[in-house]
Design brief:
single chain; 208 residues; alpha+beta; Maf protein; five-stranded antiparallel beta sheet; two-stranded parallel sheet; 5 helices; globular; binds 2'-deoxyinosine 5'-triphosphate; binds magnesium ion
């Protein structure tokens, strides 16, 4: 598998936050990122897998085969201990199909608050949680598939803070920074995030 030799990396995503992060990461090694916004005719992929890895593979396979070009797919999400790992693979549609990030964040807080009835709801850190990212690089010419994985541990906090990042970042608190993920710079997020870790894992597996 040597498709990272190409000057253009196609990422099988319509998430603009992911596109920004991949563009930033790959720019460091002189690569341009294209996304599904550059290939509007590629149909949406049904993400009905039971795991992040399964969904990443579904996206990579469907888009790679449709384009006849190597692609990178990302399936990621948030797993919250107090919610037994939810929203997990349902993170993007936690508040319903087509939900906006703000709706999902609100749903997360209301679910956590309802679980904590009778306890001290004033406490700012509601539950330990982790972000998870599965990446799949797929080359339809050879059928080769390379998988990587990354996580980051934190806590869900009771009030949103910060306007960087995307998704659940404003509620994801990192004790070592005393900040939410949305208060970090893109470089800081990349250094510690599930996506940054999965990208480093991928680079290692590609041999550098
Ligand atoms: O770094 C992150 N910071 C905050 N939230 C995040 C992050 N990474 C994933 N998430 C959340 C957002 C979304 O609710 C779900 C991903 O769902 P996921 O299906 O992988 O992506 P998506 O539907 O937004 O775009 P696409 O499938 O086209 O890649 O997890
Ligand atoms: Mg999705």
């Amino acid at each position: 598998m040597n498709n990272l030799d190409s000057p253009v990396i196609i990422v099988a995503t319509k998430n603009k936050g992911k596109v920004r992060e991949f563009a930033h990461a790959f720019a460091r090694i002189g690569k341009e990122v294209k996304s599904m916004y550059d290939y509007p005719d590629v149909p949406d992929v049904v993400e009905d897998g039971m795991t992040f890895a399964e969904n990443a593979w579904k996206k990579a396979k469907a888009v790679g085969d449709a384009l006849g070009l190597p692609v990178l797919a990302d399936d990621s999400g948030l797993c919250v201990d107090l919610l037994d790992g939810a929203p997990g693979v349902y993170s993007a549609r936690y508040a319903g199909e087509g939900a906006a990030d703000a709706d999902n964040n609100e749903k997360l807080l209301s679910e956590l608050e309802s679980r904590k009835l009778g306890e001290d709801t004033e406490q700012p850190l509601l539950s330990p949680a982790r972000f998870v990212c599965s990446l799949v690089l797929y080359d339809p010419a050879t059928g080769e598939k390379l998988e990587s994985y990354g996580t980051v541990e934190g806590f869900i906090t009771s009030e949103t803070a910060g306007c960087g990042g995307f998704g659940y970042d404003p509620l994801f608190y990192l004790p070592s920074y005393e900040k939410t993920m949305a208060e970090l710079s893109m470089d800081q997020k990349q250094a510690i995030s599930h996506r940054g870790a999965a990208l480093r894992d991928l680079m290692t597996k590609l041999g550098g």
